[in-house]
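User: Run a structure prediction on this.
Assistant: Running it now.
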Amino acid sequence: MSPRVYLMTEWSAYLYYLRLFLWPDALVIDRSDYPVVRSFFELQAWGGLVGLLVLGWLAWRVRRRWPALSFAAWWYFVTLAAESTVFPLAEPVNEHRPYLAMLGLGTASAFALRGLARGLERMAGLRRGLPRARHAWPFALLVTLTTTALGTATFLRNQTWRDDLTLWLDATRKAPNNPRAWLNAGNAALQRGDVEQARPLLLEAHRLHPCYAYVQMNLSVLAWKTGDLEESLRWTDDAVRCRPGLALAHYYRAAALERLRRLDEALEAYRQTTQLDASHADAWFAQGRLLEVLGEATGAARAYEKALAANPLHADAAMRAGLLYHYRLRDPTTAIAHYRAVLRHIPQHYGAHYQLAMALLQSGRKGEAIRAWRAFVPLAEAAGDRASLKGAPGEFRAALSDP
């Protein structure tokens, strides 16, 4: 969206936020279907600008009589300016953007309630032929009624936010032409394991946006969960066609190929993923798994190390790299470094403790190996793993038998 188009759209966005403040009946998590203005001659463009100019003029007119009210109005306009002027954001409007600006609207509302309370009190005093009383009680009554109504609306809105599915289903009702709302609702249902509820939601997202790669990826997962592996692959093929530069689409396609046991093709798809996104740790890890299956130990170890470089907390990658260096590549020194990487993040990792002791012993570092074995023994005893303790190398058994 160009800055000019975004600016013209944001003129009406100011009024949209104001409308939600006054009557918050259309609150929705995602309003990406908000209409975008392409020409100044559209009513939304010039009408929004006229509305802003009128409000700005009124705020200027009352600056001497009610300076706080004028300040509140200008606060609203200025604090929204960063998101609603010439810096295009992903969506034209979003509910969280006017939070700071609402301080101005809240102040203006307090002035309005106070003025209304004074008017009601004055009318009541005149009708009864009484002198004008203090306006505190009608003001308090108005504030009580207003806050009660808005508090109830807030409570009901919080019920919508109780989980992802209710939140996004609400978005589909309020923004039915928003494919992202349908996508996220379908994904939430899928996360619950409810494929029957997820299917129509995702298909509606696909109908609204036929080339939306994230929809196809979710439909691929749905097909996989229902056992249709060929259909799962077809959806990922479609996702790659729609977004050939999206690494995640290639990753989903690789996973679909792997489930079909087309391992060479899956490996190539995982490689395409990391060519597009070198920090995709899961794709590197998947390459390591497949290379292990294909008997390429060196390549697998390097792939695991790439996964670990992309995500230093990936303990499985460190562990599998360690095992490859230890037993397949006969490099216990490098294996030790990987086992210790696992233990830095998971100090009680059972396998890493055992393998570290073995690798240290194999490297001739007997003292370190015995200390590592002693750290392993309590874990083995707690797990009831008598076999590992009985089958320990003689050096370990002798060290444990020493007083």
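The chain is about 75% helix and 0% strand.
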